[in-house]
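Quick one: structure tokens for this chain, please?
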Amino acid sequence: MRSRRVQILVALVLTALWGAGIYAAHANGRLRFLDRLEATLTDWRTQIRGVQRPPDLVTIVAIDDTVVKRGGSYPLPRADLARVVDTIVQFKPKVVAIDLLLVDRSAAIGDATLANTLATGPMVLAAAAIFPSDSETVTPGSEDGPLAVLPQAERFLQPLPAFADHAEVGVVNVATGQSGSPLSVPMLFRTRDKVELSFPLRVAARALDEPLTVAPDHLRLGERVVPTDSDFALPITYYGPRRTIRTVSAQSIFDGTLDRAAIENRIVVIGASVAGGGDFFPTPFDSLMPGVEVISTAITHLVAGDGILRDRRVRITEALTAILLPMLLVGLLAWRRSALGIMAAAAVMMAWAGLNLLAFTHGVWLNAATTLAAAVPPVAVFAGVQLWAGSRRTQYFAAKSRSLAQFQAPAVQEWLARDPDFLSRPVRQDAAVVFIDLSGFTGLSERIDPDELRDLLKAFHALIDKTAVDCGGMITGFLGDGAMILFGLPRAMPDDATRALTCAIELHRGAERWIASLPPAIAGQLGFKIGAHCGEIVASRLGESHQHITATGDTVNVASRLMEVAAQHGARLALSDTLLEAAGFQGAPGGVLSGPLLARVRGRSGVVTVWFWRDRDGTDQDAAKAEMIG
């Protein structure tokens, strides 16, 4: 027991170390394959949560296929874009955010018209970060302090100075997971000598008209706190499929049908949704969602404060879960090494999955992939070791059971397994008893080799064992060159006497054939005698540290003494009248029954009615004499 406790303790410690290692490795940018799994699990949780109605704060003015067909080209000419912006400004929005990269020169008159239009209202323009590789993360450097975790760009693509002079600028890049779906939007970017705000953050700060403060794990817009992830990224969760956020076509401006209510006092984001434009991302609800709607989702989160939470407290919860959940599962499997333990562990896993989903639907993003990676391998290994150890224990006990079966009847063995207190107190009941013993064996043992004698006795015991088992009897013990067979344990049966009679006759026939098969020098010196009787016995356990089951009483004594009666009258099988009557004996095919004889048995007052049985073609020495008895 102590050894098992130590093993469980070691398993729990190793499980805790594994969980802590998995979490630390992933938090430090390793095990990136878990990001793909987390992206898939996040998509599932978002779909289960379903479509949500977004706060009605943002309007997307889409440069879509209708606009391109009208103008005949894409990108939209700067003069046309100026007309779109001018119309929007006239309807007095909070801020106009242009999610288009205005980095190249075009027709001078178009650029000049757009520049003048940008000066007429609150504007935010998009810049782009150019990275030296596909990765948007860098290894933190101690010299950079907390900003070391920011995405480090090689340079920024800024709008033309003519445009940037009349607007604020923010970096429009989003962070896509392993699945290609944007799961967060970085709020800050850096180069070697410069830090830039993101496009959504610039827009939100301008719309709220509040000062911006950057702090570890959160941003502050005036009194509003915006929690961020460890790398100052804003986790985003999608409200629904494309156009869930209010969207109008820019064509309505050219047609003069734009609804003022869709613009006035709102955040307006101008962006492209034209097919083939390239700015599309897969999301849980859409295979292709325009990038402008992804950006608008982040802006809505910042302004409305309804984003999904993934701050320092959430990460601490994840770390504790990655350590404690696997330990709990391993503990349950160790506590109940059975189907109940497996069911309890499965229930805990289902409860964790349910709580994780519940937290997600209520705006808290707990990483599921890391927890699964922390829990599944140690639980699988421990369960495998448990199964292996259980298989070994099963094999061990099966071997013990087979060993026990050599000393105890299978029926009694099964009964003891069900009821360990079987016969802990003596029980009186009816039973049938058969005794068999070899004649001349003692004298023979003085004249032959001990090994030959052992083989002879082994063969005789095997004959008894097979016959007793075939007839459903229990050998209570081999008595040297004989045996006692009991019918009625572990419980009395209506056919006990019938089976005992069958066993006695089969023993007679088997013993005759066996002796006849021996060398003449040995067969001539051996004989056997059998006695069978039925009645009340006292069944009990005898012994203290080494117990055995046996039966005592007058019935046992009479059955034993009947062997003497058989020998005295030249017979080999003596049956009591009580046994024959209980068995409903109607004659034995191939055998001859002689009697009855009223015989006295040694050590008992009164007489017993005895019958003698032999094979019809048997070789009993005094068969004729036995037939005449009575």
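The longest helix spans residues 368-405.
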